[in-house]
Amino acid sequence: MKGFNAYLRLEKSLSENTLEAYGHDVELLSKFLEEKKYNLTPDKVQLANLQEFLAWIGESEIGPRSQARIISGIRAFFKYMLMEDMIQQSPADLLELPKLPKKLPDVLSIEEIDALINAIDLSKPEGQRNKAMLETLYCCGLRVTELVGLKITDISFDEGYMKVIGKGNKQRLVPLGKSAEKHIRIYLKEVRSHINIQRDSQDVLFLNRNGKGMSRVMVFLIIQKLKEKAGLHKKISPHTFRHSFATHLVEGGADLRAVQEMLGHQSITTTEIYTHLDREYLRDAILRFHPRK
Fold this sequence. Notes:
The chain is mainly alpha-helical. It has helices at 2-10, 16-35, 47-58, 64-83, 110-118, 125-140, 144-148, 178-190, 216-230, 238-251, 256-263, 268-271, 273-289; strands at 155-156, 161-165, 171-175. It is elongated.
C-alpha cells in the first residue's frame, strides 16, 4: 500500500482525502476476498472477481455515485500494479460504472441575476469590482478559477474577446459581453487604478484591497452575502452563473456547438445537459400556463 500511496501522491498529485478514499477502496476489496474465502493475492484477481465485488457492494447501502468512486480507486490500484510490472493486464479495465442519474444544476432566472447584482453596494470601491466580476461570470460563462486567473492582457476590448485559460491549461476565446466590458472598464478606471498593487499581481485583473489577486473562496463569500441581501433562497455559487449563462443561451436558441466552445467543454455530451435544462424549463412553463395542464 505504501507504493500505491506514493504513486497516487507523486504521479497523480491527488489530495490527502482522495488518497485516503482510494486506500479504503482497496481495503474494501481485500475484505470482500477474505469474506468470500478467495485465497487470492492482488495479482491473481480476475475480472469475474471484481464483477462479483461490485455486486457485493451493490447489495449494501452504497449509492451509485459512491460505487463509481470505488471503481475509480480499484482501477487506479490495478493501473499502479500494471506500471510496476506486477501484472500483465489490468482486470479492472472492463469494469462498467453504474449508471448515474443526471443531476441538473441550479439555474438563476434573469430576474434573480439582476437581484443579486442590484444588491451590490456601489458606494464602496469593492462594489464596482464585485459588479464587474459578477457581470463577467454571467456574460462570459467563466469558471471561478478562470475568473480569478484573468489578466488585463487577456482582454482585447477592441476585438471584443477575452483569452481564457481553462481546464488542462487549454486556451479559448470568449466573446466579451457588452455589460461585462462596460463594468470592467469602470472598475479599471475608477477602482483598480487607485490600488497599491503587489509586484506579482500587476497584470491580474481582479484584486483584493491588498493589491493581490482574488481567491475562489473570496468570490464565493461575496456571492453568499449578496444572496442573503437579495433574499434569494436557492443554493448559489460562482458556478451557478456559468450554468445560467449556458441555459439562457440554449433557451434563446443558441447552437449547442457554439455553447460548447464558449464553455470550453471537451465533449459535446457535457454541454448537452443544458438541453435537458431547456426541456425542464419548457415543461414547467406548460404546467404553469397551459389551460389544459
